[in-house]
Structure formats: C-alpha cells, structure tokens
Amino acid sequence: MKFGPIPVDTAEGAVLAHATTAGERRLRKAHRLSAEDVSLLKSAGISEVVAAVLAPDDLSEDAAAEKIAESMIHRNVEAKPAATGRVNLHALAAGIFTVDAAMINAINAVDPTITIATLAQHAPVENGQMVATVKIIPFAIASALVDAVARICAGGEIFAVNAYQPVRVGVIQTVLPGIKPSVLDKTLRVTEARLARSGGRLTAERRTPHHVGAVAEAAGSLARDNDIVVIFGASAMSDFGDVVPAAIEKAGGTVIRAGMPVDPGNLLVLGALAGKRVIGAPGCARSPKENGFDWVLDRLIAGLDVTANDIAGMGVGGLLMEIPTRPQPREPLPAPKSESAELKVDIVLLAAGRSSRMGGPNKLLALFDGKPLVRRTAERALGSKASDTIVVTGHQRERVRAALSGLDLTFADNPDFAEGLSSSLKAGIARVSGDAAGAMIVLGDMPGIASADLDRLIDAFRKSEGRSVVRASHEGKRGNPVLLPRSLFAAIAHLEGDTGARHLVEAEGLDVVDVEIGKSASIDVDTREALEGAGGVLQD
Hints:
Elements: E1 2-7, E2 15-16, E3 20-22, E4 25-27, H1 35-43, E5 48-53, E6 58-60, H2 61-71, E7 73-75, E8 77-79, E9 86-91, E10 95-99, H3 101-108, E11 114-118, E12 124-125, E13 130-136, E14 140-142, H4 143-153, E15 157-163, E16 168-175, H5 181-196, E17 201-209, H6 212-225, E18 228-232, H7 243-250, E19 254-258, E20 269-273, E21 276-281, H8 292-301, H9 308-312, E22 345-351, E23 367-368, E24 371-372, H10 373-382, E25 388-393, H11 397-403, E26 410-413, H12 421-429, E27 438-443, H13 451-463, E28 469-474, E29 477-485, H14 489-492, H15 501-508, E30 512-516, H16 519-522, H17 528-533
Parallel strand pairs: 7-15, 16-17, 16-18, 18-21, 22-25, 22-27, 25-26, 28-30
Antiparallel strand pairs: 1-5, 2-5, 3-4, 6-14, 8-9, 9-13, 10-12, 10-15, 11-13, 19-20, 20-21, 23-24, 27-29, 28-29
Helix pairs in contact: 2-4, 6-7
InterPro entries: Bifunc_Mopterin-bd, MoaB/Mog-like_dom_sf, MobA-like_NTP_Trfase, Nucleotide-diphossugar_trans
GO molecular function, one term: kinase activity
Domain MobA-like NTP transferase: 348-507
C-alpha cells in the first residue's frame, strides 16, 4: 500500500485519508473513490487528494480485521461486524475471561499495523460485554501479514469466557461469645448476593462452635451435598494449624493453600474435601466489597481449578482498592499521644430537610417549651464532650440560622438538600476538623436527646480507640445518633440520593458498638402527630 498525496486523475480505487467536500457532496474518510467520485472532484477544481493506494495483494482494513477474527478459536465469544478496521468481540455468557497471553503477544509482534487488545486474565465479565478488539491501523495491509496472524491463531484457543455454573454452596459460620446473630445473618445475605451474580445458590448453613471437631463434622456433612463449602471463622486465622485449616484436614481433606498475596484477603484458606473445594473465607468476605475471596470463588464457580501456584501468582495486582472500613490495612490508626489524650469528636447536626411530611411547616422551627426544636438540639450538642458542632442548613436556611443565633456553631450550607440525605452528610463531613477521629451524625429533630446521651456515645467511641461505629439503640433496635470513625469519611463522598449513615454502616460490614440511650432519647419526629405527641407546637 502506498500512502500520500496523489493526482485526482489517478485516484480511482484509492482510499481517502481525509473527508473531502466536492461541490455539494462530502466524501467521508476511508471512502474508496469511484470513477464518478473522481469526475466530481475534478469538477470541483480539486486536483490532488491524500489517499491510500492498495497493492494487488493488499486487504482493506475491514477485510483484514474480519479475516483475523474468523481465524481465532474461542469459546462463548462472538465477533461483531467490522467497521473502520475494527472487529469487537463480545461475551456470550457471564463468566470468567481467560486468554492465552503468549498468543496475543505473538500476534501483536507480527507488525505494528495489526493490534489486538483484551481484558485482563481472569477478569469477570457480563453477558454481552466486550472482551477483545482487533484493530487494523492503516486503511489496508498486505495479505501476507494477515496470513501470518491466522497461522498463530490456528495454534489453539486464544481466549474464552468460562461461563458461570449453577453451583451449590454450603456455608459454615463459627461462633464465639460476643458474636451477634445480626452479623452472621448479614454475612449470609452478602454471600447470597455474591452467588446470585454468578448463578450459584446457597443451599444450607451450619453455625458451630469455633472448634476443630465441630467445624470438621459440619464440613464433611455439607461437602456431600454441595459443590463448594465456605467457612466463615469467628476468629481470623492466625496460624496454618488454626481452626479452619485443621478442621479441613480432620475431616479427611487437604489444605491446598493457606494465605494469599491479595489485600484485602490475606487470610484465605483453600482446601479440598471429598472432591469438593472448601474455602476458609477471610474476614473481609463479610463485606460486599471486592477482595481476594471473590477471585477464588468466581473462578471455582466458572469451572476453573485454583491451585496453590495460582494463588501464589495473584500478588501482582493483588493490592486492591482500599475499602472504607480498612483505609490503611497495613498501618493501624495512630494511638493517642498519651494515655490521658482523648480522641476528638465533632458533631454534624443535620438541619437541611424540607419536613415534607409536616404538610408545610418546618418541624425544626417547632417550639418545645418556647424554644425552636433545632436550637434545643444544638444546645444539647454544644453541652456534650464534642469539640465542635457543625450545623448543615438547606431548606429555609435563613430562618434556621436565625433560630440558632448567638450559639457557637459552625455552619455548612447544602444547596443540594433536595437531592436527599447523602448531600447533607457530604456537606457536613467536609467541614469536620482535620484532627477529629470521628463525626457524630445527629438529626435536628430529636427533642428527647440529651447531652449525656451524646457523651455516652463519645465515651464508647474513645473506648474502641476510634476504630468502631458507635450507634444509639433502644431495646436492641438501631437508631440515632450514629458516630462514624474517620476511616469512613471517604465512603461518604460516594453516597447518592436519600441515603444516610445507616445504609453505609450496613453496606460496609463494620464493627458496630450499640449504646442503649432509651426510647425517648432515640425518637426523631417525622410526622405532625409524632411532633405534637412529643410536646411540640408547629409554627407557620
């Protein structure tokens, strides 16, 4: 192929390099010129065009891309029609993508005019997702180059989507004193969601003491009727002879690998029992965030074997994006400078809402004993051990600020308050001081909350060394306020819509400390009846 400026008189059959206007007609880039086109160009006074002139043994870009795609051997993948020298290949099923990297590298080494790009090895894919693309860079290439690529492709399967299989999974959860049933229940929900995305299903669960014998017995039972057994230990593996690996061996199985170079996910255990795979799940697998457990589970569900060498090779790329609950997994939070040092906590008081269920009046301005509700709540926040109180305003911001006049508060305006609770959380957290270890989210419509109640939450937070979420409760029912550690602040920036701290805590699988503060203290007044029943008088 020759490329460059050529006289229009000799341009018939050439491929235009650039879009060209001839009279009222526009010839697009890559258009092959006909005799009529040449006449039109000459009539328009154009004597020269930049174009590609194909040699007799050249293939056009589309023909070359199609021939290469047709020569490939693959599974659960389809090639789309060629366009602009490109053929895209898409998955015909959800599963795990595998690729012969040596074959891809060999093709890309034939000539720079021919390129192929794919997803990463073992990438999870959805049905219909593009997994590879063939691109011919010039308008045409020598057929000999295409033939060379075709010979490489004849060497075997170049890539595949290994479709997920409807596997049956049994779960064991060990129990130690202090483990809440709600944590175990949530783990089941998260696991079921993991399996649902790949077509697997959870068939049975066993809750056992955290002892080798009990776990071994349960594993043997579940292995008989399931394809995979997953064990969630109440205590993380601390030694290769710990409960989970020891139980696999006691049940007659073998430990394939204990520990993996993926973080989060280091403490995973992989074993085999009665021809089935057993996974000792790391603690991070209780969270829906991606971790090393997903890498192993998804491959097994896709029918791929996972060996000790496979896991050993996961280190490159194994440093996954930090999850909000563990922003620095290799570096613990710094300890206080002295035993008497106290972790600093700021209060974020949410006062931006529209009180839509009140039928018009702003509930935050309702009078309780002659005082606006928002001022009553703010005064109690200021009377607590919190270092600063940040009030987030939005709806009727001027009236709310007037009700708070004279108080030593920090204000954060939320112009996007109509978008939902998440916008107010973001606005408030953005104003929390840089040295605060946590932020307590307090609703502005809590007439019964007292400074002492807020102090109890702060004390519990300090006792946990700032590592736990502390949540107010009443008779075991979760409520408000909620005190969030700084490690969660980054996650708040990604919340959308009418989503608050409760959703964040549940989604991230955090360590939660519940503090009983009583029914009257934990109530927020969402309706006219509730407000009036608590002693409030709405103001127009």
